[in-house]
Design a protein that fits this description.
Blueprint lengths: L6 E11 L4 E7 L13 E8 L5 E7 L10 E6 L7 H8 L5 E5 L2 E2 L9 E7 L4 H10 L5 E8 L8 H6 L6 E5 L8 H6 L5 E6 L2 H13 L7 E4 L11 E5 L4 E5 L5 H8 L17 E6 L2 E2 L7 H6 L2 E3 L4 E2 L3 E4 L2
Parallel strand pairs: 8-9, 8-11, 9-10, 11-12, 13-19
Antiparallel strand pairs: 1-2, 1-6, 2-5, 3-4, 3-6, 3-7, 13-14, 15-17, 15-19, 16-18
């Protein structure tokens, strides 16, 4: 499976503390050349290397104006269960730090067929919508943004939204002030040509998907994105690497990628470890996968021809891969 990403070097030109847990980083090429073009909803893979040789790789949404490619901006939340990347960004990355990033890819674009865009953000999930709002500015398609967060101090970029051109289209919901987002009412009032978009914590995404389904909204009108490794669930299974004939036991709580890396049975490239970059896509020769990635389409998942090793697991007791 070909890696369609190209990697290039950037420098951090600005760091802002947006909330107690979120920082906004501005990235630019050292030679001042334009960054690759992107569309709202795009993400990049950011690779970091510590002084001790430790390496991290995370996917982050681009939140800056797609019309301005002099630099990119990303928002990074310090995660409690960090794999190391968000902690490194918060603790070690400053103005002047060199990072390696990928060219942008978009798995969360606005649907051009929609008559209205209804965007739902939870916490750090606001970032892809910031770029999409730039795209919608001055356009003819109606839109509304519903932004929920825990407390006033956690409303990243709220001031920018309240004072900018999208203020009239934006609603804020703050848990600590008992201002709750009513998903049932929101979905019940949707026109037939409206599309829903949600980005944020998994419970919010799950609630939007379930509420939309209950309201009779077609799946193709509901779009979601979450940058976090899917929970590794399900029992142990046998993994066979067909090229070498190696058999491995993938234990409960372990990903296929982790099992392969632990045994050093094969070399697998994976940039994101979150099921979004597609670099660890591997052909399935026997068995079926339980897909947890966001990269493959529903049709591709149903076809059971390939899977993402970083997050997906076996639905069958035995899985044979082209490795």
């Amino acid at each position: 499976m070909a890696n369609k990403y190209e990697m290039f070097s950037v420098r951090v030109t600005d760091v802002q503390q947006a909330t107690p847990l979120i920082k906004r980083f501005t990235l630019a090429r050292e030679d001042g050349a334009a960054m690759p073009a992107f569309t709202g909803g795009s993400h990049v893979i950011v690779q970091m290397q510590g002084a001790d040789g430790s390496q991290y790789s995370n996917a982050y949404s681009l939140m800056s104006d797609p019309r301005d490619t002099r630099s990119y901006q990303i928002g990074v939340r310090l995660e409690e269960q960090s794999k190391g990347g968000s902690a490194f960004m918060h603790q070690h990355v400053e103005v002047g730090t060199q990072l390696t990033i990928s060219t942008p890819n978009n798995l969360f674009a606005l649907d051009a067929s929609a008559g209205r865009h209804v965007m739902i953000a939870g916490g750090i999930g606001i970032t892809p919508f910031m770029a999409q709002l730039h795209e919608l500015e001055g356009g003819s398609t109606d839109y509304e943004l519903h932004y929920a967060f825990r407390a006033p101090e956690h409303g990243a970029f709220q001031d920018q939204l309240e004072s900018g051109p999208h203020a009239g289209n934006t609603r804020f919901y703050i848990d600590s002030l008992e201002r709750k987002l009513d998903l049932t009412a929101l979905c019940a009032g949707l026109a037939d040509d409206a599309h829903l978009y949600v980005c944020g914590p998994k419970p919010l995404i799950d609630a939007v998907i379930a509420t939309a389904a209950k309201a009779g909204i077609a799946e193709q009108r509901v779009h979601w994105e979450q940058f976090a490794a899917a929970p590794v669930t399900g029992g142990a299974f046998t993994l066979v690497l067909a090229r070498s004939g190696t058999e491995l036991q993938v234990e409960e709580g372990m990903s296929i990628l982790q099992a392969i890396e632990k045994s050093k049975a094969a070399k697998v490239e994976c940039l994101c470890r979150e099921g979004v970059c597609g670099t660890c896509e591997t052909a399935i020769l026997e068995g079926e996968a339980e897909h947890y990635d966001q990269y493959l389409s529903d049709e591709e998942k149903a076809a059971q021809q390939s899977m993402m090793l970083c997050v997906s697991r076996a639905r069958s007791a035995r899985l044979v891969l082209d490795l």
